[in-house]
Amino acid sequence: MKTTITSLLISASSLSTSYATTIYVEAESGSYGANYTSTADSLALGNAYLSSNLALGGNSPVGAAQVIDYQVTLSVGTYDLYVRGYIETPSPGNNDSIFVGNGFGAKALSNDAEWTALNNMQSLQSPEGTTLGTDNYVWINFTTKTDVSQFTTTGGTETFQLAHREDGFRIDAFAFVTSGETPSSAQLSANAVPEPSSLALIGLGAVGALLRRNRR
Ligand SMILES: [Ca+2]
Ligand SMILES: [Ca+2]
Ligand SMILES: [Ca+2]
Questions:
Q1: Domain presence at residue 115
Q2: Prediction pTM value
Q3: Helix H segments across 84-194?
Q4: Which residues surround ligand 3, an ion (CB under 5 A)?
Q5: Ligand 2 centroid to 156 CA: how many Å?
Q6: Of 79, 76, 65, nearest to 22 (Cα)?
Q7: How far is the CA of 91 from the centre of ligand 2 (A)?
């Protein structure tokens, strides 16, 4: 029982810790093109993810229907991009790619120099070493684990763009984290609005702390 209470306390503390420099965004909160659907899923942060229904390729998006626009407000600085993604089965090799705009600002369609095309993402790993694999939501630091650039701003509201490449890749959430900081997956997820079950977990942790204190 003691071990259980301790692990509950650890869960509660990581859930309640947020990085001051994390700008957290639900993928489904963006302004997305006609190829996308927002789907409810209790395993996704914010209870929903975005995915596309059209399989494409190439080195940059060719139509506005592929693109998602976000407006993010940040302090002056240089940020790493973290994405919480999910590769669906079957045929994961046809479900594991995405386009990321190079830095902030609106990007031109069909301009390969303004986008990074990521493919074969199954081997990417979370901060804890969990492989993205298939049928699993995993946080990846796209700036350090792939060819995606750092994001630099003089401060203010910036446009950020993602686009689908193949279909079958779910985008759940993303975050901009000050370069050099190394949040855990739990810390990144803690920036989402907690689910009722997480709130219950925090409550259990608090009860456990009270019980332990009273026993001393
Ligand atoms: Ca692929
Ligand atoms: Ca596919
Ligand atoms: Ca989400």
A1: yes
A2: 0.82
A3: 142-145, 185-189
A4: 26, 44-46, 172-173
A5: 36
A6: 79
A7: 7
> What b/e readout covers 169-191, taking b as 16+ CB neighbours within 10 angstroms?
bbbbbbbbbbbeeebebbbbbbb
Q: What is the whole-number distance in angstroms between the Cα of residue 167 and the centre of ligand 2?
A: 4
Query: Which range marks the domain in which residue 105 is found?
Result: 2-194
Ligand 3 centroid from CA 84, angstroms: 8
SS3 per residue for 7-55? HHHHHHHHHHCCCCCCEEEEHHHCEECCCEEEEECCCCHHHEEEEECCC
Instruction: Name which of 84-88, 91-95, 210-214 the model is least confident about.
Output: 210-214
Q: Considering every ligand atom, which ligand is closest to the CA of 195?
A: 3
Over residues 65-78, the pLDDT tens digits come to: 999 999 999 999 99
Overall domain count for the chain: 1
- Residue-wise pLDDT tens digits, 133-183: 999 999 999 999 999 999 999 999 999 999 999 999 999 999 999 999 999
**Which residues are close to ligand 1, an ion, with C-beta < 5 A?**
96-97, 119
CATH number at residue 66: 2.60.120.260
User: Looking at the CA of 93, which ligand is closest?
Assistant: 1
- Write down the pLDDT at residue 1: 46
199: CA distance to ligand 1 center in Å?
37
CA 141 to each of CA 29, 162, 177, 198: distance values in angstroms, whole numbers, following the listed order: 20, 15, 9, 24
